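Re-running the complex after MR caught last week's input typo. The corrected sequence lines follow. Everything else is unchanged.
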Amino acid sequence: MKNKLGLSDIYSVAVYGIRARKGRSIMTSIGIGIGIAAIVAVIGISASGKADLIATLESLGTNLIKASPTSGFFGTQDDLPKGVLGMIERIGPVDEVTSTTQTNLLVRRSKFISELEGGGISVIVTNPELLDVVGGSLVEGRFIESGLANLPVATLGSVTAERLGIKNLDVPLKILIDNQWFGVVGLIEKLSIHPDLDRSVFIGYGIAKELFDIDSQPSTIYLRANPTYIEDVVDVLAPTMNPENPDQVEVSRPSDALEAQQAAEEAFTSLLLGLGSVALLVGGVAIANVMVMSVLERRMEIGVRRSIGATRSEIRTQFLLESILLAGFGGLVGVMLGSGITIGYTRYADITFSIPIWQVFGAIILALVIGAVAGLYPAIRASKVQPAEAVRS
Amino acid sequence: MNTSNTVISLQKVSKIYEGPPPVKAINGVSIEIQDREFVAIVGESGSGKTTLLNIVGLLDGVTKGKVFIDGQDTTKLSDDELSKLRGEKIGFIFQSFFLLPGLTAQENVAEGLLYQGFDRKIRLDEAAKVLKQVNLGDRMEHLPKELSGGQQQRVAIARALVQNPSYILADEPTGNLDRASGLNILSILRELNEEGKTVVMITHNTEHAKTFDRTIILADGKIVS
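Corrected-run output:
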C-alpha cells in the first residue's frame, strides 16, 4: 500500500471546498471575524489606554499625598493651624511638603467680561515648591518662583489657559484678578491627576497679602513621602495636622483615583471581552451549522472521494481542515479589523498605540480552536457517510 | 499468481437490508468474472443491479457469502483497507458523471490518483495523458459545466482510467446521454476492453447489451441467466 495523503494535498482539498463556495465561505467567516475583531479592539484599546495611565502614574509617582480640612456642615472649610507645615515636616518619612491657599478671587481676561462669568477658574496662592511636589511641568515660561512671589504675575493651569483663550506666551499677556492686572509668566502642562489645579491661576503669597490681604493660612497640603512608609504617613497625617479633631482632615492619595480608574476600565474591558466571546461562540455555531449543511450537500463529493480511495479519516481531516481554515480566515480578518479600530481610536483619543503581540496570536489561535471544535461534529458525520448511499444517483 | 485469472469472484453472496420488513436485495448470488471480460448486468428496476455493482465495487458490504478480488478475500478487510483497494483496483463510472464542479477536467481526472500518494505534478501529467486517450486533450482547462454530457462522461472515464484499475465498474454510464453520445461512450469502453481492461456495466439498453461478451440478468436479487 502506498503513502497516505500528503499535508499539501489535504490543504488543497480543503481549500477547494472553500473556494467552490466563496460567497458562503466569506459570510460564514464573518461571525468569527467580528468576534475576533471585537476582542482584539477591546484588548488593544484598553492596552493603549493602560499604557498611558501607567505612564501618568509613573511620572506622578504614588507617594504624593494631599490633605485638606473637610467641608463643614454648611460647606465652610475650617482653617488649618498656622504652624501646620512645620508640624508635618517633622514626620520622619516626609520628603517635601508645600501648601496652597484657596481664594475666591475672580479671574477675567478683561474688564469687558461680566463679573458673573468667572468660568469656574479659581486663584490659588502657593509656594514655589508646589510644581515639583505635584510632579508638574511647564509648557512654557516660569512658575511662581521665589523672586516672583511679591510681583503681580501669575502662572496658569492648562484648563485655565484654554478657557481664557491663551495658547502661548509669544506676546506679553495680562489677566484681571479682582480688578488688578497680573502678567502671565507661565503655562503648566495638563496634570490630569489634579483637575482642580488644572483649573487654577497661581500667584505668590507676597502679592496676595499686599493686594488682597490674604494671609498665608494654608487650605491644602501637598507632600511627598518615602514610598515604603506611605501608609504610615497617611495614618499619622490627620492627627498631626489637627490633634484635636483629626476627623476634620481629609487625606487622599491622588494615585488612588487613577488606580480606581484603571480598575474601572478593567471591569469594563472584561464586560466587552465577554461580549466578544459571545460573538465568537455564535460564529462557531454558525460555522458548525454551515459545515453540517455542506456535508449534506456534498454527499456526491464524499461518495466519489471514497470510491477513488479516500479513507474515513481522510474525509474527516478534509472537512475538519475546511472548518479550521474558515475560522482562521475569519480570525485573520478580525485581527486586522480589530487592529484598525485600535489604531483609529488611539489617533482619535490621542493615546499611545499599543497592542500586545501575544494577544494577537492568542486571538488567531482561539479562532483556529473554535474552527476545530465547530468542525468536529460535521467532519465525523462526513466520514460516516456510507459510500454506497452517497453514489446513489 | 492466480492460475484461473479470475478478477472478481462472488460466492453465495446475500445482501439483506434491515427491515422492517427486511429486504433481500441480493439472494445467494455466485459470479465469476475473468480478466478482460466485458460483462453487462441487466434487469428490471429494483432487481438488485446497483446493489450487486456496489458489492463488486467494495462500496457496500455483504450480509452472507464471500467476495474475492484478484483472489483476495475482502470480507475480512477493514474499512481503510477496502478504501485503499478501491483506489488501487477499481475504477468507477457513474450515471450522473459525478465530477467536482470547481475543478477543471484535468484536475478532476488527477483526483483519481489523489489518495494513492502521488505528487501533484505526476497526478496532473498522468491526467493529461489519459484525457488525450479519450480525445479530450483540448478540453483540459475546461470546467465540467463548460462540457457536454458526453464529454463529461469521458472525463469521468479518464478519472477511472488514470487509477490503472484491475476492472472498471459503470452504473448506467449512458443513462443520462443522447443516443450518439451513449454509443460513443460504449465504444470507448469497448476499446478499453480490447486493450485489456475488464469492464462490468449496468445497462437498461438492450441495443447496448448485445455488444457484450456476457450478460448477467438479475431478477429479485437472483441471477436468472
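None of the earlier attempt is carried over here. Chain A touches chain B through 33 residues (CB under 8 Å). The mean pLDDT of chain A is 84.
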